[in-house]
Amino acid sequence: MKRRQLLSTTLAATGLATIAGCSGTGDLDGDDGQFPSRDVPGYAGWVPEASRGTETGTFFAHLDWTALEELEAGVPRTDDETEALLEEAPILGLPMYGGLIAPFAAFGIMFYPFSDDILPEDGQDIDGIATDSVTWTENVLVFHGTYDPELFVAQYSEEFEQADERDGYTVYVTPEELAYAVSEDAVVVATQPGDDDGYRPKAVVEDALERRLDEVDRTVDTDDGRWLFETTGDAAMAFGVWNVESFDDALEPVEELGAGDEPRADLDVGGNPVLNDVDEFVTTLVVDAEDGDLLETEARFSGLYPEDSVPAESMVRDHLVDEDVPHEISLEENRVHASATFEELPS
Fold it and tell me: In terms of domain of life, where is this protein from (predicted)?
């Protein structure tokens, strides 16, 4: 993966103030009026319920380039700005963190022959590869878009052998422990394991396909997991974590890549009482822009808490959202949902 390509991709992901395109807010149809009910995003079908045992627990990060594709001249957000934003308005900073780290996960697939092509440089699609979005979860990257499987056979199959075929996906592996699967609408790639990693890429790809195709072992299939995705909905950027020992662990998945060029923001939120005790959460950022001008940005957060540690509404308002912008907060038992609408980003 070319450094220029990764940097331009990341800047596009985080330079929200000058983007064009639109990511809709979706229809709201809450059953009891307490929480919003949105369509469950497609990327939820790839996220596992349980971790493979990494210290960071189970997490996912998602970035949709189609909502951010026409980046115009402007000042992009840096790691330091993301850090400041997370402290000033965590409901906005958290999904932006997901959008920041998702492209850097491509460092984990740099030894695949298509790594320079799966995210075409300067927005120019290669004939047969048109990536719209990417989801990173555990040890797998899922690229969503339009793909020509025959292109992968003709151009990227050297040293790979076909290992399996199921439901439109063809799985390819190498003796060097690389594995990926390709279909007409997705490319599923296992990150290359390090010397101390205990996973096998072929098993990672097979597990991902099993989750997606057989609908098993997924967070979204649990009552709490479906609520997390249903209340936050589809978005340009998303980030979610569960099964972590502490919230600080939730902000460290990028360190597993060991690429040397990962984002450097020191995202320390240890003093935030709303985030300290959260067990599981999903946070998303929906962007509405037209002709290069930002119309509004809606940030959403849904979290699950221990019964004795559910934050009060006033605490959520003071420590998660920006009280100076339109916002909504809903609490019921151990569930907390909040949303905030920004017409411009905090400076």
Answer: Archaea
Please indicate, yes or no, if residue 150 is contained in any of the structural domains.
yes
> Is there a domain that residue 314 lies in?
yes
Tokens 């340009």 map to which residue? 236
Residues with Cβ within 8 Å of 234's Cβ and at least 6 positions away in sequence, in order, are 23, 26, 38, 39, 41, 42, 284, 286
Count: domains in the chain: 1
- Per the CB < 8 A criterion, the answer to whether 205 and 190 are in contact is yes
d(CA 252, CA 247): 10
Distance of CA 303 to the CA centre of its chain: 16
Answer for the pair 269, 278: CB distance below 8 angstroms, yes or no: no
One-letter identity of residue 63: L
Range of the domain at 142: 3-342
DSSP state of 181: E
Residues with Cβ within 8 Å of 106's Cβ and at least 6 positions away in sequence, in order, are: 1, 6, 115, 118, 119, 134, 141
Are the C-beta atoms of residues 340 and 89 closer than 8 Å to each other? Answer: yes
Per-residue pLDDT, averaged over 155-179, amounts to 93
Instruction: Report pLDDT digits (tens) over 238-247.
Output: 999 987 766 6
Nearest CA to 23 among 69, 83, 73, 75?
A: 69
Amino acid identity, position 235 = A
**Mean pLDDT rounded to a whole number for the chain:** 79
- Judged by DSSP in three states, 226 sits in helix
**178 belongs to a structural domain:** yes
Q: What type of residue is 86?
A: L
Backbone angles phi, psi at 85, to 5 degrees: -65, -35
Does 127 have pLDDT greater than 80? yes
